[in-house]
Design a protein that fits this description.
five-stranded antiparallel β-sheet; mainly beta; Methylamine Dehydrogenase, Chain H
């Protein structure tokens, strides 16, 4: 007769949230891991951001119509692979990472500063941590999986109780039974195992769960004997199985779903038996009811989502709106928002319904870790969810004691810290956390002298407490498709890391092609659109291209460096490249090894600097096609070089870990040297702050990308400030705009462009809104200032190279009164397309300054002239 039993959840309906209830303005990470990328307690939500090692923290509920503010916690030096909130303490968060450590954090109430460091650190383990789960009945017990190892931790003593063995491959999922006596694991070797960790470390039972070893997941039902697993069968179809550990040889029930690459995340509420299946990268949620009698897996409903799902989590039952019959709430993590999706059972009476909400576990643990390990079987007391009878108890774990509150006289209690400018897309106040990845080798005085650590959290806090950038609300926008050049074919995407990969001036773009002979395509920016399917006319360089650069004073003159240690100078016809060119205008020979970088002089015509694997930098007179100066002193590969704005000095960054400044006309040896980045994977250098400082992008010893800011006159003293960004394989290419002091940073293969305003004094780095694209770019360069649409407050225009297209990207400020010339954003700019000196004059010791040009369009009134009008009458 069980098949005729009527479910009380059969009419459950899904209520998508109103847009006002979305948590907007976030940027999520899409790194693959076994975790769900988002977790919730009864008070907070934590989720993976797009910055590796950084979590976003936001309140679960918002009082009234108040906007929820996202803060950022820099917690690891590598990707956060999984996270979990304590089932008892809403503010205790555990995080696991690819840096092989597990950390516990005491999070504050909304509006307070995030912690300066973890309360507990467990590990390091041999491999990256894949899965984390708190014990459901005991405070201070945590299970983690790293590779084939599953460890049960005594968090209070910061040491393992035991390690569960016998896994033959990567452990993909771990789950505690509801009474906390057993541990179930799903493994890439297709085996489902059950352990009693207090009796023996070996599995008491095991069985083959799914025929395919991809992305197995596990959840324990409310009954101690039943497990739910998700995975793939031999035909790569996704499936769900219900297991009874008393009859473990075969599944109690099985359900085959569909063929899809997205792994299923089982979100199971043990009290109601409702199971929500969420597929990563999909736009659908499926809800089932799990029962111990037939039908064991019965469908309830399906929900089509507005956004692609990147992660999902259940909200604890203690936080549900029980009087409106909300039986489940799923938090959907998308690329730019968190959506709370509610499941309601429609009832006429607005009251508490006992049949829908059985008693649930309270927030008080049953015992401590030592008592549990000694064999205690005490269970967590169950409490009613009826608002009239619900106890208002709370629990604070002793594992990480709360920090002493510090009164801030400038900030009223309970007021969220944040920038509430209406022009900003989102507000992101953050903590004073100093990242654990701060390079220690830079000296103990770094933190005291710079005021800037490597944490993304600290950057934003300083912009709140100190000066803030007028560019913080920058909006990066890809221009309309009519401005794109599409149907690019055969691009060479393997140019050396020392090269930008392509180059452009105001008229045209030069892009290396993959075909033999070092061919270079030259595309006209004034003729956007789809390129023909036929072969393009090219420059036949004769050797594989390593770098290329347009002459800043002659838009038809292109320098191309090759692997044959030669530099070829090409003259492109004014009307564009209409036929294949095989003979360069001139060839420069002198280097004995492959050339890596080319850099034209900013003021003198026909002066070019080049660096080579022969460890020299050579300066050429292009008019005479001859080498004039040679700089020495490098002991390893030269990663990058840059002229100072006045053209008197040249800076280099080298694989030997040193940054150097030369005065080429004074001698071949460096004028100054200083310590560069610790990592030897790649680096770049650029002059900033009117030539008073040097900015170096590189890697630290743990492969985190970082920025180092130096005083140009005191390199030996080390960097003024160090800023850690993220973990990624490509070197950051710094693109500096001297008019605004803003630097744009991105790497080949990245999807994000970081923006910072640079200052020569503390806080040095002022963070601005980043530009994020859905797919990676192969190169990113800045166009001349004259290409900006000043009337739209566009202060920078860039070109983004994709695999098959070129797209212009505009960076604008959201100003209300655009009819006025924004003179605070557009100072007079240098006329960089006219030379100040000849090569002969510069080599002879002459110096000069470029003339300046106003960017004010005709007919526009400067915004500064409005100021007298804004002053109230006396």
């Amino acid at each position: 007769m069980h098949r005729f039993k009527v479910s009380k959840f059969r009419h459950t309906e899904v209520r998508p949230p109103r847009r006002e209830a979305w948590i907007n303005g976030i940027r999520t990470g899409t790194s693959p891991s076994c975790g769900n990328h988002i977790k919730a307690s009864s008070s907070l939500i934590a989720f993976n951001s797009d910055r590796p090692g950084v979590l976003g923290i936001v309140p679960l509920d918002s009082p009234g119509e108040e906007k929820r503010h996202v803060t950022h916690l820099g917690c690891h030096s590598d990707l956060v692979t999984d996270l979990d909130f304590s089932p008892f303490d809403d503010f205790l968060l555990a995080t696991g990472s690819a840096d092989r450590t597990v950390k516990l954090w005491r999070l504050p109430a909304p509006g307070q500063a995030l912690p300066v460091g973890p309360g507990v650190v467990l590990g390091p383990q041999e491999l990256q941590v894949e899965v984390l789960k708190f014990h459901p009945a005991v405070d201070g017990v945590l299970v983690s999986a790293a590779g084939t190892a599953v460890t049960i931790w005594d968090v209070a003593r910061q040491q393992p109780f035991t390690e569960l063995v016998a896994h033959g491959d990567l452990v993909q999922s771990v789950a505690w039974s509801q009474d906390g006596a057993l541990v179930g694991t799903a493994c890439k070797d297709k085996q489902l195992r059950v352990f009693d960790p207090r009796t023996k470390p070996k599995a008491s039972q095991s069985t083959q769960a799914h025929e395919n070893g991809r992305d197995g997941r596990l959840a324990w039902t409310g009954a101690q004997e039943h497990l739910v697993s998700t995975g793939f069968n031999q035909m790569r179809e996704r499936e769900v199985k219900l297991w009874d550990i008393r009859l473990f040889s075969r599944a109690l029930a099985s359900l085959t779903l569909d063929v899809s690459p997205g792994s299923l995340m089982p979100l199971l509420d043990p009290d109601s038996g409702l199971l929500v299946l969420a597929g990563k990268g999909e736009s659908q949620l499926s809800c089932y009811e799990v029962a111990t009698q037939q039908p064991a897996l019965s469908p309830v409903n399906q929900c089509v989502l507005e956004n692609v799902l990147r992660g999902a989590a259940l909200v604890p039952r203690r936080a549900l709106a029980v009087t409106s019959c909300e039986v489940l709430r799923v938090l959907q993590l998308s690329d730019t928002a968190i959506l709370p999706i509610s499941y309601h059972v429609p009832r006429k009476a607005v009251e508490f319904h006992e049949d829908l909400f059985p008693d649930t576990a309270s927030c008080v643990p049953a015992c401590d870790s030592q008592a549990w390990w000694a064999g205690s079987c005490q269970q967590v007391q169950r409490v009613s969810l009826n608002p009239a009878r619900r106890p208002h108890t709370s629990f604070t774990s002793r594992l990480v004691p709360p920090a002493e509150p510090s009164a801030d006289p400038a900030q009223p209690a309970g007021t969220p810290v944040g920038d509430t400018d209406p022009s900003e897309g989102f507000s992101s106040p953050t903590s004073s956390l100093t990242s654990p990845s701060t390079p220690s080798s830079l000296g103990p005085s770094l933190s005291s002298t710079s005021g800037v650590g490597t944490s993304p959290s600290q950057r934003s806090l300083q912009s709140l407490l100190g000066p803030s950038s007028k560019f913080r609300h920058t909006q990066g926008t890809v221009l309309h498709r009519d401005n794109h050049i599409t149907n690019l074919k055969g691009l060479n995407l393997t140019t050396p890391g020392e090269s930008d990969g392509f180059c452009a001036n105001r008229l045209r773009v030069a892009v290396p092609l993959l075909s033999s002979g070092g061919q270079v395509a030259v595309l006209e920016l004034r003729n956007p659109g789809r390129l023909p399917d036929t072969a393009l006319p090219t420059l036949q360089n004769g050797a594989a291209v390593t770098d290329l650069a347009w002459d800043p004073f002659d838009p038809h003159h292109l320098a191309v460096a090759g692997e044959d240690a030669r530099i070829r100078l090409w003259r492109v016809p004014p009307e564009g490249l209409e036929e294949v060119l095989t003979t360069p205008e001139a060839t420069l020979s002198g280097h004995t090894e492959k050339i890596y970088s080319l850099c034209f002089h900013p003021l003198a015509a026909d002066v070019l600097a080049s660096s080579s694997y022969d460890l020299t930098v050579r300066i050429w007179d292009l008019q005479a096609t001859a080498e004039r100066l040679r700089l020495q002193g490098h002991r390893d590969q030269i990663f990058g070089l840059a002229w100072s704005p006045d053209g008197q000095r040249l800076a280099t960054i080298c694989k030997d870990g040193r940054v150097r400044v030369y005065e080429p006309r004074s001698g071949p040896e460096p004028l100054q040297e200083g310590p560069g980045p610790e990592g030897a994977r790649g680096a770049r250098v650029v002059w900033v702050c009117d030539g008073h400082c040097l900015l170096v992008s590189g890697f630290d010893s743990r492969s985190e990308r970082q920025l180092l800011l130096y005083a140009a006159e005191a390199l030996a003293a080390g960097p003024l400030a160090v800023l850690g960004l993220d973990v990624a394989p490509s070197t950051l290419l710094p693109i500096y705009d001297p008019d605004t002091g803003v630097v744009l940073l991105t790497g080949k293969g990245d999807t994000r462009v970081f923006l910072y305003e640079l200052l020569p004094e503390a806080p040095f780095f002022l963070e601005c809104n980043s530009f994020t694209s859905p797919d990676p770019h192969k190169g990113f360069i800045l166009l001349p200032k004259t290409e900006c649409d000043v009337r739209e407050v566009e202060f920078a225009r860039c070109l983004r190279l994709r695999q098959t297209s070129l797209e212009p990207v505009a960076f604008r400020l959201p100003r209300v009164r655009k009819e006025f010339f924004q003179d605070d954003v557009f100072p007079d700019t240098a006329v960089s397309w006219e030379p100040v000196l000849s090569a002969k004059a510069w080599l002879g010791g002459a110096n000069g300054q470029p003339r300046l040009l106003s960017l004010q369009p005709p007919g526009m009134i400067p915004g500064a002239m409005l100021m007298p009008v804004l002053v109230p009458p006396q």
